[in-house]
Specification:
The structure is a homodimer. By secondary structure, chain A is α+β, with helices and mostly antiparallel strands. The longest helix of chain A is centred in the N-terminal third of the chain and has 31 residues. The two termini of chain A are 29 Å apart. In chain A, helix 3 packs across helix 5, helix 3 crosses helix 6 and helix 3 crosses helix 11. Chain A has an eight-stranded mixed β-sheet, sandwiched between helices. A five-stranded mixed β-barrel of chain A has the order 2-3-4-6-5. The first copy, chain A, has a three-stranded antiparallel β-sheet with strand order 8-10-9, with no helix packed on it. In chain A, strand 2 and strand 3 form a beta hairpin. In chain A, 30% of the residues lie in helices and 23% in strands. Chain A has two domains: 137 residues, Nucleic acid-binding proteins (OB fold (Dihydrolipoamide Acetyltransferase, E2P), Beta Barrel), CATH 2.40.50.140; 300 residues, Bira Bifunctional Protein, Domain 2 (BirA Bifunctional Protein, domain 2), CATH 3.30.930.
Amino acid sequence: MASTEQESSQTPANLNKKQAKKEAQKVERLRKQQEAAAAAAATALASAEADPFSGNYGDVPTEEIQSKAVSGRQWTEIGSLDAELAERTVLIRGAAQAIRSVSKKMAFLVVRQYVSTVQCVLVVNKEWVSPQMVKFATGLSKESIVDVEGVVSIPKDPIKGTTQQVEVQVRKLYCINRAMPNLPINIEDAARSEMEFEKAEQIFRRFLLSEGFVGIHTPKLVPGSSEGGAAVFKLDYKGQPACLAQSPQLYKQMAICGGFGRVFEVGSVFRAEDSYTHRHLCEFVGLDVEMEIKEHYFEVCDVVDRLFVAMFDYLNENCKKELDSINRQNPFEPLKYLRNTLRLTFLEGVEMLKEAGIEVDPFGDLNTEAEKTLGRLVREKYDTDFYILYRYPLAVRPFYTMPCYDDPAYSNSFDVFIRGEEIISGAQRVHLPELLTKRAEACGIDVKTIATYIDSFRYGAPPHGGFGVGLERVVMLFCALNNIRKTSLFPRDPQRLVP
Amino acid sequence: MASTEQESSQTPANLNKKQAKKEAQKVERLRKQQEAAAAAAATALASAEADPFSGNYGDVPTEEIQSKAVSGRQWTEIGSLDAELAERTVLIRGAAQAIRSVSKKMAFLVVRQYVSTVQCVLVVNKEWVSPQMVKFATGLSKESIVDVEGVVSIPKDPIKGTTQQVEVQVRKLYCINRAMPNLPINIEDAARSEMEFEKAEQIFRRFLLSEGFVGIHTPKLVPGSSEGGAAVFKLDYKGQPACLAQSPQLYKQMAICGGFGRVFEVGSVFRAEDSYTHRHLCEFVGLDVEMEIKEHYFEVCDVVDRLFVAMFDYLNENCKKELDSINRQNPFEPLKYLRNTLRLTFLEGVEMLKEAGIEVDPFGDLNTEAEKTLGRLVREKYDTDFYILYRYPLAVRPFYTMPCYDDPAYSNSFDVFIRGEEIISGAQRVHLPELLTKRAEACGIDVKTIATYIDSFRYGAPPHGGFGVGLERVVMLFCALNNIRKTSLFPRDPQRLVP
């Protein structure tokens, strides 16, 4: 077996010693807690021995969950439990989110699967449920995985605490895997934003595919020890100096030269950022787009415009539940955006800032503060949180940015802002090898070192442009979250590498 | 501007000195060729000065392709040119794939856009086309990007060399960007397999989304300097030892423990392989799946089964054109597969090999040779190139693999084979922290170093399993390509890092 999984068995063996020591103590503590829980379960089980209904509940023996047999039983999704299933017997599996003992003869159990929850009721009766079974239920630790078999019923009053508006009258209750009694995290927190994230990515993909874009994958291992510029992660590649790609920029342009027409990539992007801010990550999911243009880089802006308006519309229309849940934890104002995205030139932005008493170099860049202020001014004047600022000074853009035809101090480039923060950067690229060489030289780059890149424009390069977006930043700004870490399951910043 | 693109301007500055020198010589050579081409163009232009139709052709001045204006003109896609457009005037843009001079008064130009081509006809006439214009056309270098305006006509005889069965009677012809006269690569080669690739990935995504899977992204920067096992790429992460993820294994399992139910990831996977073989890459696109299981890891096999049969069906039905094109370059037999994928136990496989005179250790692994032979035997006996081999010896699987309930020498695991080569590896995972600890110890792993991983199973972990696939390998084996490099735009192997 030349397994793809086999080789990954070493990945976790990877914590530094200090962490390892801390973790060892934690493991010991957890182990003790778990032993106590197991002992309690054993006691419950012992007292159940004399119970005629003892077959209706209990901990499932390990071998039963080692793929012993396929029974053919059907599990119903908790999210699909509704009044139409009333009087039917169903089997569900989920995590015991809440357990409430009412008396020795009655208990409630809220079971959760994904984002759906249902209330299960245990009442002692002569056919299925014994007092020992109620005791077993109330002895379960929260988040333990359980199988519940029971009959769906419709309660007199609406149920407030669960997503499903029916109850399950329990007949059988088995514990598949016990959780620790003390949980360190709120599981819903972790799941929430990633769902959002997933939605944003789906819309991005669907939209671009519908507009004729082809998804590509470009290498993340790239040559060289970078000289100057933003920090990169360096590594040794079989004796050659290499680093982690900071962007698929050059590869996506080469794909355009190779005749792909319109391409996009969703993939990992690495930045050895030192900035420990609310909006920087060292590893994030980049959405990159590159396309042929016929006449004007506004064709790229048009794609940005349609794409984001479609994405915002979709999120507002279809993700109400998720957005409400975020809003409860982090109240935010809905994003204001126009049907046709506002476009202002860089100089118009500079002028607006000037009128507000802020002087900005018309050939320089905007700092974060100026961007924030401009965002506020634009909102007041144009009633939108989402707009495009274009025609940036050439000096503040990368060497491969096309200069303006009428003023070489400016460039065919744009940034897109949400709530005063930049989320997208895009431009027309230089597709003429002579001009590209000239621009590289002007920017102090040794053209010999980028020969393969420049060469790729010698074999029939169409005019083209594109843009790049950080997925986490879009989600953060759409939801007005105060920290980009909330949009990532396992964020990476200058201090966090584990888990 | 805290641009995401700005910072990538340094990426290309990354070739080692030897390569740089070689490249510099190449650039010089290319520059001379290009100067010659430009001179030729200038001559053509000069002779056109006296031409009353000189406005109908020529090189477009640089400023016109620097986003000077939006004219509102509509370009027609070459792929949509058909008889319905007969007599209509169209404007198309593409690469000049072939240029044929018939006489001083007539020339043909085949223009390509993406995978579509159309024949354009220049004939000297009194309204639009001068002899100078024909000369301009025949002087173009192949792969130059051109705009052609003309009238669609239906030829008497079918056209063999192009995808479109109409011609364009040229009225105007402008060159947007000249290509070098000598092209180093065949552009169609590069584009071909990536298209295939893209299709495979789309089907994978669509299928899994339709079955309730959630797409996630997990970090590629993971802690530690790996100890033993397969080679990893190491790097320094802000003073901490780190490496590139060899698989999202642990993170996807943690997502399952976090309540996601069913997850998948399409992302970069890194292996510091030393194997310079036809089927290993140092960086590839991994498709990873993890899901809760109710009773048996066959539930995971069922997903593999449905997913791959759907993918093969789709490719056969919808990608005939692409498959034919691959078949012309690399003839291959269509893949044989059954409606319900054949499943054999590891021991049944061992038995079949034994009957064929090949002795294999029933508690060891199959080597590549044995896998190949078994593939042939299975094909003869069951008439399929695609099958699942399950219940592997525990000793040859990673520590987190669930042992069989009835024999701890075997495991709840499987591999999937196409044409005698393994493409997928999957299994039920150990979700019980005590058993996981025991298994890690048995495999010689220091459990302290994987404490966070083991801990994640203490807070309510459902039984689960999953699998991993290398996208490039699937494409390679489906198309019976002899080298995995043909399935990747920019392959990475122990020797290749550029471009």
